[in-house]
């Protein structure tokens, strides 16, 4: 097999150590040397020096948790061509599992160009990604504490969440604070509600007539304090993101023109994809990388599965949420696409198809520097009048009706 890289290295990265195998081609002879280094900064600098002394040009490592990141950062600054491999794509021969064998196997695959590189975002995109993922986790924690607070109210037989939509909103918060302070009269508690609350004072008083104990008050106070702490952390993250958003502002302005994508969603999408679409050859590659393309599993002419791969879970879930928002937006073309897809394939598959369409639009917008144009959102022409007419004719033919289409002249605008 043809050798692409005569001096390369494979790195088997662990939490405390990294095993490095250098593969050097000398004429018709292949020399492999293996050494183990600590993953401390001093150890990684020693690794970089050893690779430089051996004139290594390329190095490959597996994406193992977060342990590969410090190795990547230090070696990338030393001028090596680095490749991050998906661990599932570079499995060694069964029964030959050792750290030394893994490092040597990576070097062997790299030398022959058999490793497909994973997407590693640049530093500014990686920093934004860390902030936005932390933000999403904090929002989930806030929801969890809100649910625990509602559970505590249910134990006290207070049905507050049955009569108001947000128990930690302005009205709910005022009533909860009064409960914690010791107020137990449901009528006085009901008077704390905002006048705009739909529920009547009598309904509120009935829902607030419970048996709140000292233990319940303690738990309510605990969960409210935790929610306040999370809100403060979210505000700090939002400020940090805004202070470092300058490279992404133009791209955000482009993305918010897509129906269903707001400013916060645009920041989350760019944190996962970056703004450089040159690393993806086509929009199809981009959609497949995100995990929004059905798998190609065919054997003996039979399609065994069309399930989507896990892909990029942070990006996929965000895009599906945006797709649900997009199809509900009045006048947007996404809703017109969703209805026939839902009828044929079901809601789950249809919404994933809409999310994939949105991602294709994002790809072309970021690549070409354009904004969202509804009439160009479907380059395949799936939503044209001709395509819709053909589909309707086909459905009528299945029902046994013959059709003769005639174009009705449209009045001038």
Which structural traits does this protein have?
413 residues; alpha/beta; two-stranded antiparallel ribbon; 15 helices; 52% helix; 11% strand; globular
Please characterize this protein's 3D structure.
The protein is of the alpha/beta class and 413 residues long. Helix content is 52%, strand content 11%. The chain has 15 helices and 7 strands. It has a 5-stranded mixed β-sheet. A two-stranded antiparallel ribbon has the order 6-7. A hairpin with a 2-residue loop joins β2 and β3 (29-38). The protein is globular, with a radius of gyration of 29 Å.
Write a compact overview of the structure shown.
By secondary structure, the protein is of the alpha/beta class.
Mean pLDDT over all positions: 89
Helix content: 40-55%
State the secondary-structure class.
Answer: alpha/beta
Order of helices and strands: EEEHEHEHHHHHHHHHEEHHHH
Largest sheet: 5 strands, mixed
Return Rg in Å: 29 Å
List segments where confidence is low: pLDDT < 50 over at least 5 consecutive residues: 379-383
Count of helix runs: 15
What portion of residues belong to β-strands? 5-15%
The number of distinct β-strands equals: 7
Globally, the shape reads globular
Question: What strand order characterises the main sheet?
Answer: 3-2-1-4-5
Distance between the termini: 67 Å
List the helices and strands and how they pair.
Elements: E1 7-13, E2 17-26, E3 29-38, H1 41-53, E4 58-62, H2 68-76, E5 81-85, H3 99-111, H4 123-155, H5 170-181, H6 186-190, H7 201-207, H8 214-243, H9 249-255, H10 263-273, H11 283-290, E6 297-299, E7 302-305, H12 313-328, H13 333-345, H14 347-368, H15 385-398
Parallel strand pairs: 1-4, 4-5
Antiparallel strand pairs: 1-2, 2-3, 6-7
């Amino acid at each position: 097999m043809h050798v692409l890289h005569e001096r390369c290295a494979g790195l088997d990265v662990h939490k405390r150590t990294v095993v490095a195998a250098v593969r050097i081609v000398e004429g018709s002879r292949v020399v492999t040397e293996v050494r183990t280094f600590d993953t401390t900064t001093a150890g990684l600098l020693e690794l970089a020096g050893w690779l430089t002394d051996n004139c290594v040009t390329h190095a490959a490592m597996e994406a193992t948790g977060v342990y590969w990141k410090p190795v990547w950062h230090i070696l990338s600054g030393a001028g090596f061509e680095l490749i991050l491999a998906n661990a599932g794509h570079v499995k060694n021969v069964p029964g030959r599992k050792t750290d030394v064998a893994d490092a040597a196997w990576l070097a062997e695959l790299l030398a022959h160009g058999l490793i497909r590189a994973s997407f590693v975002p640049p530093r500014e995109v990686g920093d934004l990604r860390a902030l936005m993922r932390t933000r999403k986790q904090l929002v989930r924690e806030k929801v969890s504490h809100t649910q625990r607070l509602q559970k505590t109210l249910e134990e006290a037989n207070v049905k507050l969440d049955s009569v108001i939509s947000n128990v930690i909103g302005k009205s709910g918060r005022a009533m909860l604070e009064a409960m914690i302070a010791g107020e137990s009269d449901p009528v006085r508690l009901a008077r704390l509600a905002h006048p705009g609350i739909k529920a009547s004072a009598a309904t509120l008083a009935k829902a607030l007539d419970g048996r709140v104990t000292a233990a319940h008050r303690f738990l309510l106070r605990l969960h409210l304090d935790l929610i306040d702490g999370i809100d403060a952390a979210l505000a700090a993250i939002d400020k940090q993101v805004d202070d470092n958003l300058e490279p992404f502002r133009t791209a955000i302005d482009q993305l918010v023109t897509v129906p269903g994508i707001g400013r916060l969603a645009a920041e989350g999408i760019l944190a996962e994809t970056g703004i450089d679409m040159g690393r993806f050859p086509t929009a199809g590659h981009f959609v497949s990388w995100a995990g929004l393309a059905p798998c190609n599993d065919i054997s003996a002419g039979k399609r065994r599965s069309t399930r989507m791969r896990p892909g990029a879970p942070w990006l996929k879930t965000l895009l599906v949420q945006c797709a649900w928002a997009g199809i509900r937006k009045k006048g947007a073309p996404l809703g017109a696409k969703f209805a026939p897809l839902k009828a044929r394939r079901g809601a789950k598959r249809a919404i994933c198809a809409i999310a994939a369409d949105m991602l294709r639009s994002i790809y072309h917008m970021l690549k070409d520097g354009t904004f969202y144009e509804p009439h160009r959102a479907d380059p395949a022409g799936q939503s044209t009048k001709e395509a819709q007419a053909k589909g309707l004719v086909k459905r009528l033919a299945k029902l046994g009706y013959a059709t003769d289409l005639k174009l009705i002249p449209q009045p001038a605008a």
